[in-house]
Amino acid sequence: MSWILLILIVATVVWGISAYNGLIQLKGDTLNAWKQIDVQLKRRHDLIPNLVNAVKGAMDFERETLEAVIQARNQAVKIQAEALPTGGVKKLAAAEATLGAALSRLSVVVEQYPQLKATGNIGQLQEELTSTENRVAFARQLYNDTGTTYNVRQQQFPWSLIAGMARAEIVELWEITDEQERAVPKVDLSGKPKA
Amino acid sequence: MSDTNLFEQQRRNRRRSALLVAIFLLFFAWIGFGGDYVFYLSTMPDPTPGLSRGSGPTYHHTFPWFGIGATLLGIGMAWYGWRNGPKQVLWASGAWELVQPTKPEEQQLVNVVEEMAIASGLPKPTVWIVPDQDPNAFATGTDEGHAHIAATEGLLTALNRDELQAVVAHELAHIKNYDVKLMTLLAALVGVLALISDGTRRFLGRGGARVVGRRSGGGGRKGGGGLVVILLALWLISVLLAPIVSRLLALAVSRKREFLADASGAQFTRNPAALASALRKIEDAAAPTQAIQRGSAHLCIADPLGRRINAKQGLVADIFGTHPPMAVRIARLKAMAYQYEKTGVIPEAV
After folding, report:
1. Where do the structural domains in chain A lie, given as residue ranges?
2. What phi and psi values does residue B313 have, to the nearest 5 degrees?
C-alpha cells in the first residue's frame, strides 16, 4: 500500500517538474518572440527618417503627409519604450497601426511622382520598407502564436496548478482591431503578406 | 504545422538519421570483418603438420585488422560527411555565398530570407546563389544554427516577391523539422559509398581478381573451401552492390516530406497560393537544373533532373520517387488557400 503511495508521489513530483519546465520554456519563447518584435519595430522606426529625407526634396508641397509620418513615428517610439507583453501591447499596436496608415498614404503619394520612382534610391528604400513591414508582420505572427500557446497552457487544468509557481502571467496578444484595419487605406503596393 | 506534428517529424528525422549512420557503419563492418574471415580461412594452419605447404614463414590471419580498420574508416567518413556534408553539397552545385548583395533581386532574396527566419523563429541561415538559369532551390546544413539556403539565379528572375517568399519558407520548414540534417547526411554518405564502389570495381578490373582467385584456390585444397568461396562471393557482391545500397538508403527519404514542408511553409507565410504559383512557374520551366547532380537532387524543392517517376503516383512511384508529382502539390496548396480564405485558419494537414 505504501509502495503505491510512494509511486504516486514520485509520479506527481516528476510531472510537476516537467510541467513547470514546460511553462518556463513557453514563457521564454514568448519573451523571445516579443524581443523579435522589438527589434523589427526599431528597424522600422530607424528606416523612416531615411525615407523621409529621400523624398523630402521632391515632395515639398506634400509636407502634411510627411509630417504625419514623422509624428506617428515619434509617438510609436515613445510608446514602444514602455510596452511589455504583460501590458501596453494594445497601445503599441494602435500606435504602430497609425504609423502603418501614414506610411501607406506616403507610398500612394510617392507613386504619383514618377521622377522620384525613377531614381534607384527610392526603389531600394521601397524594398526596405516592404521588407520591414513584412518583418514586423511576421514577428507579430510568431509572437501571437507563441503567446496564444502560452496563455492557453497556463489556464488549462492541471497546468493551472503550477502556473502560480512558475510566475506565469497572461500575455496580451498583438491584435488588430477592426477599427484600426478600417483606418488603413486598402491600397497595397508592397505585396504585404496577409497576416 | 502544429507543435505535435513538428515534434513528431523532428523525432522521425532524428531516428532516420541515426538509422542511416548505423546502416552505413554496419556496411563498413561487414566489408571489413567479412574480409578478415575470408582471409582467416584461407591462411588457416594445416591440421596435419607433415603436409605443410612449401617453405618460408606462413602467415596466419587471426586478428581482425581489416574489420577494425574498416569500421574506424567508416566512423571517420561518417564524421567527415557530417561535418563537411553541407559544404560538399554547396560546392558540388557551384554555389557562391551571398554576403553583400549588389543587385536589387539579391537584396530582395536576403530580405525575404530574414523575414522568413523571423516567421519561423529560426536563426537566419546563410544565403547562397547557384549560377543556373533553371528556377530551383535547396537547403542544407547540420542543425538550425548552421543552415544554408541556396537559390538559383533563375529562381530570382522567374518569381515575384511573394512567390520567392513562399519558396524560402518551404526551405526553412525543411530546416525546422530536421529534414536537411537527414538529407545532407544522406548526400554525404551516399557520395562516399559511390566512390568506394567505383574504386573497387576499378581494382577488380585490374588484376585484383587474379590475386583473390589464387587465395581461394589455395583454400580449396584443404577442404572447407566451398565456404570460403561462398563467403568471398557474398562479400564481393556486397562491395559491388554499394551503389544499390546507396539507392536503398535514398528510400529512407520519403516523398511525403515535400508535402509537409509545403504545408508548414504556408504556415509561415500564411499565403499558400503564392507557393502554388511558384511551383507552377518552377514546373513550367522544364529545363533540368544542370548545376545540381544526382547526389543532391533529393534536397531540392523540385526534382532538378526532371525524372519521369516523380510525375507519377502509386506505390512504385511512392517508393522510388524523390519528389511528389507537382500537380498534386499544387492542388493541395490550392485547397489550403481556399480553406484559409474561408476560415482564416491554415489547415494543419494536407
Report:
1. 2-183
2. -115, 175
Q: Name the residue of chain A whose CA is nearest to B160's CA.
A: A191
> From edge to edge, which strands make up the β-sheet containing B126-130?
B96-97, B126-130, B146-152, B137-143
- Which are the catalytic amino acids of B? 171
C-beta of residue B177 within 8 angstroms of C-beta of residue B260: yes
pLDDT in tens, A151-192: 999 998 888 888 888 888 888 888 875 554 544 444 445 554
Contact B270 A128 (CB under 8 A): no
- Which residue among B107, B161, B270 sits closest to A194, beta carbon to beta carbon? B270
Interface test with A, best of B118, B156, B176, B345 (most A CBs within 10 A): B118
B246 falls within a domain: yes
Residue B151, helix vs strand vs coil: strand
User: Residue B317: exposed, middle, or buried by beta-carbon count in 10 A (0-12, 13-18, 19+)?
Assistant: middle
DSSP annotation of B30 reads H
Question: What does the block give as the cell for B46?
Answer: 594445416
Note the pTM of the prediction, 2 decimals. 0.79
Integer Rg of chain A from CA: 23
**For B268-292, what is each residue's pLDDT tens digit?**
999 999 999 999 999 888 677 878 8
Minimal Cα distance from B104: which residue of A?
A: A124
CATH of domain A2-183: 1.20.1440.20
Triad B40, B41, B43: Cα angle to 5°: 65
Q: Which three cell numbers stand for residue B156?
A: 530570382
First to last CA, chain B: 10
Asked if the C-beta of B76 comes within 8 angstroms of chain A's C-beta atoms, the answer is: no
Question: How far is residue B145's CA from residue B123's CA, in Å, rounded to a whole number?
Answer: 6
Number of continuous H segments (helices) and E segments (strands) in chain A: 7, 0
Residue B88 lies in a domain: yes
Domain range for B40: 3-46+61-92+183-250
Q: Establish if B80 belongs to a structural domain.
A: yes
Of A36, A127, A193, the CB nearest to B271: A193
The nearest CA of chain B is from the CA of A3 a distance in Å of 34
Q: Give the count of domains, chain B.
A: 1
3-state class (DSSP) for residue B285:
coil
* B127 DSSP β-pair partners: B149
Q: Judge contact between A110 and A54, C-beta under 8 A.
A: no
- On whether any CB of chain A is under 8 Å from the CB of B33, the answer is no
Which stretches in chain B have pLDDT values below 70? 1-4, 45-58, 194-228, 230-231, 234-235, 238-254, 286, 294-295, 348-350
Q: How far apart are CA B32 and CA B74, in angstroms?
A: 10
Phi then psi for residue B140, to 5 deg, are -145, 165
Q: If you search the block for the grid coordinates 506565469, which residue do you land on?
A: A168
Q: Which residues pair with B139 in a beta bridge?
A: B149
**Structure confidence at residue B253 (pLDDT):** 65
| Inter-chain touch A131–B270, beta carbons under 8 Å | no
Residue in A127, A135, A139 nearest the CB of B108: A127
